[in-house]
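Re: Re: token formats

Sure, here are both.
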Amino acid sequence: MCSLCILDFIAIALKIFCMTKSFFITILLVALTFLPARSQQAIKIIPEPVSIIQGAGSFELPKEIKISAPATKELEQTLKFLRQKLSTATGYTTSGVADAGGAHILLELTPGDQLGNEGYSLSVTPSKVLLKAHKPAGIFYGVQSLLQLFPPAIESKQVVQNIKWEIPVVEIKDQPKVNWRGLMLDVSRHFFTVDEVKQYIDAMVRYKYNTLHFHLTDDEGWRLEIKSLPKLTEVGAWRINRTGTFNSFGAPEPNETKTYGGFYTHEDIKELVRYAGERFVNIIPEIDVPGHSLAAIASYPELSCTPGADKYQPRYGQPIMDWSHGAPPIALLDNTLCPANEKVYGFMDKVLTEVAELFPFEYIHLGGDEAPHNFWEKNAQVQALMKREGLKTIPQVQAYFEKRVEQIVKAKGKKMMGWDEVLEGGVSPSTAIMSWRGEKAGIEASQKGHYVVMSPTTFAYIDYMQGDISVESPVYAKLLLSQSYKFNPLPKGANTKYILGGQANLWTEQVYTMRYAEYMTWPRGFAISESLWSPEEKKNWNSFVTKTEDHFKRLQYSQTNYSPAMYDPAVSVKKIAGQYTVELIPEIGGLNIHYSFDNSPPDNFYPQYKEPLVIPKGASQLRVITYRNNEKVGRMMNLKVDELQKRVK
């Protein structure tokens, strides 16, 4: 029913029935329920705000936008960012005004603590936008939500024509569920430039992440300049260049040059810290020890207590660990710093002195994960250490190492964090834990009074495949978008007083470029951000999928890569009574799945999947495609029959 028809209906009803005042009010209220419904725009903010009350009408951006904001240094970048976003895609002009009454967009810092350090309130009326927060970070996050109210084209890097730049009338009150909302970027396996890291930061802050975990060292490369230890970057930052499937490369050729790599100078780090800080992002550095230290040992072989370490070089992707017996792995070469070698602690003191000076964040992450034991078990120096210190087990040897390096960290005025393995031999109560092997270690650590960041593989390892192996680069595990969305950083049984928050981790053995790093991060980064920011009761999978599709458009305009894997069905194979059957399981609703066994590429005129498919005799390939409303949305999946049969357990 149109709004004009409703008003005509009211007028006619008044004439014919001479209705009472109360009856008139009743009909008017019924009519008004129709009027806003036609003008409302769907609100698709990620992460979902705490409270949204949508009204009738909209605010249309004027061609000359006047913005009022406090003149504080902490808000300079926020204001610059807002003006740039509002002008680039629209072609409109922006200007600052001292008179708040004459502003179209008003940013205010107000006293109080109801919304905390990062919360905000956003009020949009037909004539004005008012954004309030108690702290500058809240203004910054409110700006992200404000921009997400505009059409996706607001993210364009050039002027977009024929767009009505309007946002819905709305009242939003918002603040985060947890304080630590992180993404980890592994720059050791593959080096990313300063500009590429800035690009990653720009993408993460759109979704209210506030912590970048910077994995700076590993077997494959040492990426941080340590001026007192120059060989770390002269030797440890460079390796043989091999491209393909990591962990499968063969032996090096004679005199093969080490030309692949890079590192960050002190000035680079200062620039990244400055850039991140302006966007309210903390950078936590990780120096991964005592395992994952091959690049350091290649630079300074005396850090090892294994003969032959002087022949080591940074790993270029060849197998160096045997995981067939579970954890800890069996090392094929010794990639650990020697816990019985006093030179190691002098080395760590030099490294941590410069790390502490470069990174203002209160924590330094010192790894501690996946340290193999087989070389330590046979080493005379380690055995002597155990006898001298009364250590009964190899995990206690690692705990000895961790406690000593923590004292160095404390001496630099910092706090230590490590992966959950550091708990195994006993560790200082002041050590914070990053729980990655599921939730159990994090829950138990919080109960013992350790501060914890939840980062379980089951929800937050975004280096895993996000779809079927037929359309994804092969990795040993899979993590679907829907599974990431189930992440709760405050799991049942945890002492939430000690849960700092959570994060997703992007390990980059198979991630060679920033373009692919983006593909692996988004949209699972949407799911993790909503899990870290939004109240659990506000999360809704179907609503999230709708929002995700809107944000795909935003990423397209911003030229940010993402994965469309949610449109591809999961594939399950069974063998029943000698016949192989294939089940295709869509991750989201509303999809039609079409298939062929005759090797031709199916479209929406091919048979539609209705029930598990029996593989016909003689078929060599199943090909699958998904459509919605007769529009192709999925990728062509080419599933070889012999490979499908191997999936049966």
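Second one below.
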Amino acid sequence: MSSHHVPHTKTPTLVFDTSSRASRHVALMIESLIRQNNSAGQPTVLGLPTGSTPVGLYRELIRLHKENGLDFSRVVTFNLDEYFPMDPEDPQSYRRWMKETFFDHVNIKSQNVNIPDGTLTREQADDSCADYEQRIRRAGGIDLQILGIGRTGHIGFNEPGSTRQSRTRRVTLDPVTRRDAADDFFGEQNVPQQALTMGVGTILEARQIVIMAFGEHKAPIVERAVEGDVTDAIAASFLQQHPDTTFILDEAAAGDLTSRRRPWSIGPVEWTPALIRRAVIGLSLKVGKGLLKLSENDFREHELYELLREHGPAEALGRHVFDEQMATIHTQPAGLQPKTILVFSPHPDDDVISMGGTLIRLVEQGHKVFIAYMTSGNIAVFDHDAWRFIDFAAEFNRLFEIDKEHTECVKERVQDFLRRKKPGQLDSEDLLKIKAVIRQTEARAGALACGIPPEQLEFMDLRFYCTGKIAKAPIHPQDINDIRAVLERLRPAQIYVAGELSDPHGTHRTCAEAVFQVVRELRGSQQEFEVWLYRGAWEEWEPHEIERVVPLSPDDLERKKHAIFRHQSQKDRAMFPGSIDRREFWQRAEDRNRDTAKLYDRLGLPEFYALEGFVQWRPA
């Protein structure tokens, strides 16, 4: 596995090139511990988390159980937390989540599973928390505690202000935490105000701790937790005081660490072309000078003397990076000769949000552009939109005398379900189909606004997404076959893939990894194509990362916005906007494209109205 320890952190930190490899590493740690204790006839006591971060870990442990015979019969588990109040059969219950995600797939004994009880009264819950502490002590303490980290730096539900000595207790959730959980509950108003959680003191008594963090959105809080001071404002910072804690990160979550942002400030570095570009662009933006205006003193005064000595003078460094950035500007993103282009869009609106201007440009320049919508996106449609849609369909069929009796039967069945539906309840099959049609018709309208006709659209409806839940299944083998079939049939010269891996529920990541797998498998065959990664809905490429930008005029950006507007079910208030950025998707797209252009202008490059940025993906 490709991994390395990170210098200049107050807690040992290990970085892997992908989250799946990081999860596999932690699974192997757990396997080793279980097998060692099993051979000695001793139990293994694990502290377990919930959420999106450990899903890959649990899937790998299930694989080790089924394929390698890993025996969980002696394992005792203590979960970190549970919402309060919470029925154990509620779709948002951590008890139910653990059963469906992990416990039901391994041979762990039910009496060995411990999860805080969200069904009790407040008085009973407080007594139950004290009993939870006693059960941990009776089990001999926790051998290995697995953690995730929240955006406020919380571990478990130990929100800002939690003390080093805190024990298992009932807590009031931070507003940020409730907003982060809003997607899982289909609205912040449905998120419980309180939770039951192990305390910081309880967690720190574990003999070994592993804390996992994946994705760009975790990078800022990871940096504060492992490089900042110990403070009760960030509960995860207390882990610096534990004798055997390791942070396990993917490359994205490690992005804000000093060893990534400014490695030259903590010791000698190998000045690779990528690192030179990062350093010089960062210096230009920091001192407020264009690349061609940087002076020797600018480098000396900002910890870049070694770069200046090895690759200077300043004028040569500025000119070199200026020329590199100039070469990223492409008004003909696919060249002069007509080509077949294939855009993979994880959801039915990612294409226009992230690269709508480039789609318009490609079509205008005579290229044949296909869009493959990888999932239906049906869980991201509000019920009131589905109600309106079925009402329209019924009126349409009545007006044109189309099977009115059957239409009314379906309408009544769907609307009756919606009348009785509880907050957070999973949609019926009828409702999922209706919501899928809404997203599909919006995708056709959005693509047409960019000049792409319906016959050049592929609706793949990949199986991993079809759970009806926010949590998704692993990528299905047939999904891989479907992606391969599209590539082999269309034989595109260029492929565009969502490289934005911080979407709230991992769909972008799963879709990208599936495409990358197929591209690797096809490497060396007759097919040769460029793979370009786009962003825009949740993150944007940093200027030193960008390898291609496509300039957009005011008219281009306006057309792109109108294509986004065609996705009416996602406008005004999207079901899953992501917790960090509350702007609408069209606002994010406009602001990020304009901001990228402003960054190029600040670097002393040609001034543009807006820019869409891309990074080329190359198989390892």
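The chain has a mean pLDDT of 93. The first strand starts at residue 3 and ends at 5.
- S.
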